[in-house]
Amino acid sequence: MPGYFVHNGQLFREGKAVISPDNRSFRYGDGLFETIRVVKEKIIFKELHFERLLQGMRLLQLSIPEFFTPAHLEDDILSLCEKNRIGDSAVIRMVVFRSNGGLYDLEDLRPNYIIQGTALPAPPTATEPSEGLVVDICPEATKACNIFSKIKSNNFLPYVMAALYARQNGLDDALVLNQYGRVADATIANVFWIKNGTICTPPLSEGGIAGVTRQYLLQKLPQSGFTVREQPLTPEDLQEADEVFLTNVIKGVRSVGRWRQARYSGDITKAIRRLILELWK
User: Fold this and answer.
1) What are phi and psi of 114, to 5 degrees?
2) pLDDT tens, residue by residue, 37-82
């Protein structure tokens, strides 16, 4: 049975065409998106998601209408989940893009949006593969460090190419470097590493996306007794790390078991993973 999606607040059956060939997201990647986890009819990290989305829209100089509020978007998302019967466990993708127009002759800066939902298996448990993920660095796809690097842009090409590199080389994920040869993030995740009990992650000035799970952990970990630091991550740091883990809102916290010749334990990562799993109960 066909599902439904939301376009500018209205429900449509999947397969309905609602954008034109002049769509600016299609033409120029002019827009941004959010990937949201819904568990038991609750949006995980709701405030962080909507804060990031609105900050990104302001950065892209979109004219945000009065109705475009977190409460309105939450209603759209949960109504869609109810309509598609996926409220127990779902991933939501919300794409925001500028109204149609040429490259320079912009007259309408108002946002359009599409919300899609897909059922997911139940959230993962504290148990994960003991060997951990296998990752490496994608040598070709790099990110620039600028004020736009932190948003989830509709122009996602470096991550697409890094994901293809991972698949072609039998990896679970690939790390993306910035223009200085340091790690920005992974294809769909932020990167953390642990050395001598200190948990580190690259600052957003290194070109990585402002992940909501990353932001939550930066707030929560010090409250739970962990030492946390933001600092640049080099390949040499990866080689010398005790543990490495990746974070995103869909998978939570995932241990990395191997990067090239380096092998990692996952002892502290397991405790961090439990902090996220508590939110999914």
Assistant:
1) -130, 135
2) 999 999 999 999 999 999 999 999 998 989 999 999 999 999 999 9
- The secondary structure of 23-92 as a DSSP string is -HHHHH--EEEEEEEEETTEETTHHHHHHHHHHHHHHTT----TT--HHHHHHHHHHHHHHHT-TTEEEE
Rg of the chain taking only CA atoms, in angstroms: 19
Segment (H or E) for 186:
strand 183-186
β-sheet bridge partners, residue 230: 201
Mapped onto helix, strand or coil, the DSSP state of residue 134 is: strand
Structure tokens at 256: 């990395």
Q: What is the pLDDT of residue 123?
A: 64
CB 241 within 8 A of CB 264: yes
Exposure string of 139-170, with b = 16+ CB inside 10 Å and e = fewer, is eebbbebeeebbbbbbebebbebbbebbeeee
Quick: pLDDT tens for 101-142.
Answer: 656 556 667 889 999 999 998 766 545 556 799 999 999 999
Instruction: Report how far Cα 235 is from the mean position of its chain's Cα atoms.
Output: 22
**How many Cβ atoms are within 10 Å of 88's Cβ, its own excluded?**
14
Q: Comparing C-alpha atoms, which of 254, 154, 248 is closest to residue 210?
A: 248
Q: What is the mean pLDDT of the chain?
A: 91
CB within 8 Å of 98: residues ≥ 6 apart: 24, 25, 30, 31, 60, 62, 106, 108, 109, 110, 111, 112
What pTM does this model have? 0.92
Delineate the domains of the chain, giving CATH numbers in brackets: 4-119 (3.30.470.10), 133-280 (3.20.10.10)
pLDDT of 28 over the 90 cut: no
Task: Give the single-character DSSP code of 171.
Answer: -
Partner residues linked to 36 by β-bridges: 92
Q: How many Cβ atoms sit within 10 Å of the Cβ of residue 136?
A: 18
